[in-house]
Amino acid sequence: MKKLGIFLTAIVLASGLLAQDFSANNQSSKDKRARLKEQRNAEIAMEYAATSNMLDSMSFVLEAYNLRDEWGHLVTVPSNLNFIMVDSTKSVIQIGSNTRLGANGVGGVTAKGTVSNWKLIKEEKHKSFTLFMTVSTPIGIYDVSMFINADGNVTATISGINPGKLIYEGALVPLANSRVFEGQSI
Questions:
Q1: Domain boundaries in the chain?
Q2: Do 134 and 144 touch, CB atoms closer than 8 A?
Q3: pTM, whole model, 2 decimals?
Q4: What CA–CA distance (Å, rounded) separates 56 from 174?
Q5: Residue 29 confidence (pLDDT) above 70
Q6: Who has the most CB within 10 Å: 102, 113, 131, 148?
Q7: φ and ψ of 163, to 5 deg
Q8: What dihedral do alpha carbons 104, 143, 90, 116 form, nearest 10°?
């Protein structure tokens, strides 16, 4: 009987120690999650500020890694040949491929023109942007709408006078850091 009492006392003490350790470990885990959340929020705020600066200065390039048509057909493309560039009031819209066949010498079309109807909407709460602009080129007038996340991921839709849309999915980079190759414009 005495052994049973000692055994039960040992179990009660051990479970108490384990409960304290689990509670401390759980608190440590909560603190770690809170620190990681704060760190991520700080990173998002910095990325949002950098993206906002690019858009305000009108000096950026959307380097696309995917192109999609209005029916949802998706094509992975080289980002150095498929882009939308904005430099102040000038813009270049290009599609290309590695075949090097096409009117622009890089397997597609290059449209160089001027930007008008610029409208930038900043969503502070969601840390995102919506940009609308019109690009007038010798081969057509295009309406471009971009949805931009704080980290610079972009979905841009281009439409013209004729039916059809082309959707660029990619990353927004500063014009100075861009690695695009501009083909010959028409």
A1: 1-186
A2: yes
A3: 0.80
A4: 12
A5: yes
A6: 148
A7: -65, 155
A8: 150
- Rounded Cα distance between 177 and 186, Å, is 26
138 burial via Cβ count (<10 Å: 0-12, 13-18, 19+): exposed
Which residue in the block uniquely carries the two structure tokens 């009108």?
58
CATH architecture of the domain with residue range 1-186: Beta Barrel (2.40)
The neighbour count for residue 39, using CB atoms within 10 Å, is: 10
C-alpha to C-alpha distance for 138 and 158, rounded to whole angstroms: 16
